[in-house]
Structures are given as C-alpha cells and as structure tokens.
Amino acid sequence: SALYRASRDFDAAREWGERARQLAEKSEEPTEQARAKQSLAEVERAQGNFERARRLFEAALALADRRGAAECMTGLGHVFSEWGQYDAARQRFEEALAIFQSLGDRQNESECQREIGLTHWRQGAYDAAHQAFAASLEICRAIGDRQGEAQSLNNMGLTHIAQGDQPETRRCWEASVALYRSLGLDKQAGG
User: Fold this and answer.
1) Which residues, at least 6 apart from 105, have a Cβ–Cβ distance to it below 8 Å?
2) What sign does the dihedral 103-72-130-153 (CA atoms) show?
C-alpha cells in the first residue's frame, strides 16, 4: 500500500490496504490490525479525507503497540493541523514525541519537533516555534540527517522572517538551500 500511496494511485492503495486490513482481522493479531488501519488512514489523509483518516487512526491507536501508537498520534496531529486545530495537533505531536523519545527513535523525535514548531508558527508563537525547530536541527545534526537539517533550517528562517530578522532569515535559508542542493534535491531548494 505504501508503494501505491507514493505513486499517488490512491484507488489501488485503498484496495491493497483494505485487503491487508481483512487479512489482519482474520489473523486476530492486534498489532497487524493496527498497522493495516494506520495504512488505510494514511491513504485517506493523503486524499484529503480527514474525517475518515481520523477515525481509522483512532481505531488503529486502540490496537497499536507503543511505536504504532506514536505513529498514529503523529497521523492524528497531521489531521488536526489540516483542520486548523493547532492546539489539538500539537498535543498529538507532543504525545508522539514522548513515546519516540522513550524508544530512542531520534529520527521521529526530530520530525515531531518540526511538526510541533509548525503548529506554534501557525499560531504566531514564533519563539516557541524557533525552540522546536532548533531542537529538531540539533537532533538532525547529531544523527546525520542532512535533509532534516535543511528542513529545520528552512523552518527557522520562517520564524526569523516573521519576527523581521532578515539577516538571520537569509542565513538560515541559504544554509538550507545549500544542503538541499548538496543532496541533489534542487526542487526543495527552490531550484
């Protein structure tokens, strides 16, 4: 189903996800059932069917192991962000963050920090946003995630420009563009 989501063939992704869900239910294995529901939720979210995605994420959450619960909370955070419910989104991202931290999953920890930062930024809480983006940047540098580093720098630039600090905005964005280009991701770099 992930392959079909990546190719944007949502009908095929939904069909395969539904098959996986049916097989998981027959297996009576809660973790497998949770994964299948979560996969379907991601397809629905990608298509903009946010209410259906929310219901599927919540159903998966009830069955998931700790990692699956954190992934479902992240998915719910994205749904609430799409609805403009940033406090609810941030709460889900913070719950996911706590689980990922307890699991030692630094990659997902950095991604949650970026999402928390974006919820703050969308609400005009630029100092809080900057703190979250800086935390993400620190983790990305520690684990060697250069694309995450570029995203974090870009987001830090957003907070600087919102606060009228053009020199810092420029510094962050130039560093972000340089990283994206070094990774061959010119499209993300605006090129």
Assistant:
1) 67, 70
2) positive
Alpha-carbon distance of 86 to 121, in angstroms, equals: 10
User: What end-to-end distance do the CA atoms of the chain give, in Å?
Assistant: 31
* pTM of this structure: 0.84
- pLDDT the model gives residue 30: 79
The single-letter code of the amino acid at 62 is A
Place of tokens 């630039």: 157
pLDDT, greater one: 116 or 19? 116
Alpha helices (runs of H) in 28-145, residue ranges in sequence order: 30-46, 50-61, 66-82, 86-103, 106-122, 126-143
pLDDT tens per residue across span 129-170: 999 999 999 999 999 999 999 999 999 999 999 999 999 999
Helices 126-143 & 146-162 angle (0-180, nearest 10): 160
DSSP 47: T
Number of C-beta neighbours around residue 1 at 10 A: 21
